[in-house]
Model the fold of this input.
Amino acid sequence: MENIIQATKLTKIYGEKETSVTALDNVDVQFNENEFTAIMGPSGSGKSTLLHCLAGLDRPTSGQIFLKDQDISTLNDKQLTKIRRDSFGFVFQAFNLIPTLTAEENITLPASISGKKPDMDWIKQVVETVDIGDRLTHRPNELSGGQQQRVAAARAMATKPEVIFADEPSGNLDSKSSKELLTFMKSVVEELNQTIIMVTHDPYAASYASRVIMLKDGSIASDLKEPTQEEIVAEVTALTNI
Amino acid sequence: MFGFTKRPLFLIAWKNLKTYPVRIFLTTSSIILGVAVIIASNIFSESNKSAFDNLFSGIYEGVDLVVQPIQEDFAQGFSGDGGQGPISFEVKKIPDNRIQEIVNLPSVRAAWGEVLGFAQFIKIVDGETVLISNGFAPTFGAAWDSNPYAQQWSLVEGQPPTNKKEVVMDVVTAENHNFSVGDRVTVLAGATPASFTIVGIAEFANVGAPGGATFALFEFRTAQALLDSKGEVDLINVVIENNFDINDVKNDITNLDSENLNVINAQEAAAEQADSIKQGLDFFNTILNVFAGIAIFVGAFIIQNTFRILLLQRTKELSLLRALGTSKRQIYRLVISESLFMSIIGSGLGIALGIGLAVAVKEGLQYFEFGLPDGPLVLTTEAAITGLIIGITVTIFSSLLPARKASQVSPMEAIRDSVSTPQRKSLLARLLFGSIISIVGFGVLFGVLYDFLDLPTLSSLQQVGFGAGVIFIGISVVTPSITKPFVFIFDKIYNLLFGILGKLATENSKRTPRRTASTASALMIGLTLISLANVITTSFKAQAESLISEVILADYQVSAANVFASPGIPTGLSEELLQLDEVTKLSRTRATVVGFNDRPLILGAVDETVFDLVKTDDVSGDRKDFLDENAIGILKQTAEREELFVGDEVVLTIPEEGERTFTVSYIFDWTTQPPAEFFVLLENNSFFSDESLDTELYFNVDKKTPELEEKINAIVDEYPGVEIRDEDGLVEEANNQIQLLLNVIYGFLSISIFVALFGITNTLSLSVFERTREIGLMRAIGTYRKQIRRMIFIESSIISIFGAALGTSLGIFFAWSLIQTLADEGFTVFAVSIPQTALWIGISIIAGVIAAILPAIRASRQNILEAISYE
Ligand SMILES: Nc1ncnc2c1ncn2[C@@H]1O[C@H](COP(=O)(O)OP(=O)(O)OP(=O)(O)O)[C@@H](O)[C@H]1O
Ligand SMILES: [Mg+2]
Done:
């Protein structure tokens, strides 16, 4: 498997001097193409910070981030925006959709703002996989939370990005909707050859991933390959008890 | 320090304001502007009034009594406003030997005569003669008072004039036109210009030059000769001996020649003259106040809107107060106290800004040499209090509704998480209510136009105005409910033009139709008035154009360049023109003031040819009979007013001639602006033939060629102060005058657009604030900052186009109604200037974009992480 995105000596410090918080402490990590990776860890361990830095939403204090061979940590806002638009997809915990646009318009939004014609064949395929074909003309407030997250996932994939970033995508969903979404995300990686990096603190959600990275106090504590849910729970318990 | 502690809500209100200065600024911006305009206009007129007071008391500085000639009864108080052209007003003067008689009286310490008339400086610039004058201000020639008691003029530089080749120039003219002592200058006084040496520069009663007038001061005898006063003076100033009673001296002087002399108290005269000018200024002040009113009216819209917006942003805070047990009433009072504080601050700032504005306007007018007397700016306490009261009342009234709404916030709101979105109440009720009002308005208005409704006590014009007002209110009520359908039109176009950004912008304007509409309404007011003014003036222009080509049959018209300043057209010109073979027909017009039924009236004298050169319509009588001796022609309106008919006899008091009887032989309609009301044939009336000046000349040529034109121009150029125009020139002149007026109106109305700008900024700021998350999300998934900004600009353009479109349509419609109503008075042309309309819509859109700059920048700088983080 190819290495698609990689962080070296990634450090993020919030605040100044005495009040400063080191959210990420010299993190070295790489993510593989066509893999579903979960990032876990206790609250405040730096999961979101890592994801934001990797996705070009936040700037690291020091260290580098490579998307394939390109160092994206030195890019200016405009260049970063272009990378987010063309190479990344996003699913957040909530407020994923523009309320005034229909589901379909939300899905094609990244393509629309880049001024390109969306690849309709691909989108059709994605929409079928997410199973929201009958809801496309509805606005977000007419969709359930689960449907909204699936529309967000469909949008994240619509431009065939290199990496999809998801921060607690199932955090607000009930177990049924959450299962549907995770199943879909897994199938996206396996069947549509996408790459997903997902932050979660739910071991059940993490069990859908093929790799789980554990963070603690801004450093990587462990890196599990193909863990079962039991293994994840054990690791989380171990981390929280230290 | 305020001792409000017993009133916690007052304290909260005050603290709130201290913490959010931007909030104060946003809310009060419109009130600041409105109050500023009121204050500025007031300062401006008050200052002018006091300047005129100073000026007139300055004129009579050190003078106790003024001796005037008694004018013929009918000429008393005649203002000289008799239509076109200068009127040779036969004023009586005082023989100058009277001065010595007055000085010889034991009670008189000093007396000196004044000579005043028209004289104009002429400057040669690049070989072209330029007549010097300040706008419409008159150009005077006067005698230099060498009497040691005379204090009106004082030399700033140089010497008094001592012979007929010397002149003293007023300091303002000297400074503006770069003249200095020793220069030679040409002065036009009487019929022929002559060259003089400037021997001195003088200042008038410490104000430079009075009222923007220019002054050429000559040695006494020279002034008498030049200003048509040989052996005479216009008035005599008198200083009395200390130990005499002023009334006794008055009698002493009057007794010298009680038939012809009128002696008045100098200070009374000053007050009287100042008063009559001040009345004229009051009119100007009224106009300024109307514009201030418009600004305040637009301001009220915006204050209300801004209040609603700000309170919406504070929903959580207010509902927390509610949850803590604050009653609805208390919330209401909290908001009202906040608005009270804001209004006081806003009005205070408005007064300060108004002072600044007045200074700016004054400097501006000075820069354009617009002659108003100089003097300190005066802010009266009344004006300041009025500004304060208006500012406070309008602000508080505008905050009543939003405050009520805010007080109804549910305590639950604090616990809910999202930024509250306004509830979608049905706009149907509004649509119905507004439509009913509009229909009533249309009924009232069309009732006049199609003769089916005539409201008692209102003239048709008033009824149309009333109807228009009602329609305007109706439309304002309706706008929120027509926002969506209106924006719907944009959907497709904007989607095509701007893609997804266009779509997002249109959707956003539809999301809060009420807010979009009230923001647009503020702009609508200004645009309604602007397009109303625009269409009316365009129509008038078109009307004037068709009228001029219809009624001026002559190829050329000659008149005085500045009717207020120039004495008229020397008769030599008509003689020279007649000598040209190419001139086929020429008519002269002269005018003088005569008495008729003890009232002043203008009597014109014309050549027979005038009827071929100016369009006149026969009403009754015969043009041929007009040629008879003792025949008089009368204007249709005058004949109707005076109930005169063909065959009637009229007795006119003619200056220096006495009474003469004429027979009405011809009643006609002079289709342009008539030069007089009564007309006689020039050659039949010797008292006119002696006259040395013509008012107007009309003439035809056999064929218009550039060579001939050059030849004619060469002749006319020898007569400074005289202007020649052909039909195009007349049309152009009429248009220029109308355009000038329109520009002034535009200038004032743009204030209302400026006020509306603040409303757009407020609305967009809120819109951006409400969409923090949305915008952050868009940025996260790859929207450029530039695109975010563009989206806000597009949104703003929707608001401004909405306002401009509504305003422009209403304005055009109102103008159309007005012109229809005036059809009976001869206004028949309805014309819309497409370029000007487009220009103003363009200006509105640009204004909207400017208003969007700050919100757009704010939106594009939004922190992405803050927007997407979920708490
Ligand atoms: N904007 C910020 N300013 C200051 N400190 C911050 C900021 N954002 C995060 N932090 C701090 O950095 C650390 C890492 O935060 P981060 O949000 O990455 O944690 P997390 O692992 O995502 O936690 P959670 O599971 O609660 O979402 C925390 O201690 C947090 O308080
Ligand atoms: Mg987090």
Summary: Chain B touches chain A at residues 499-501, 503-504, 507-508, 511, 773-774, 777-785, 787, 864-865, 868-870 (CB under 8 Å). Residues 1-5, 75-89, 417-423 of chain B have pLDDT under 50 and may be disordered. Residues 266-313 of chain B form the longest helix (48 residues).
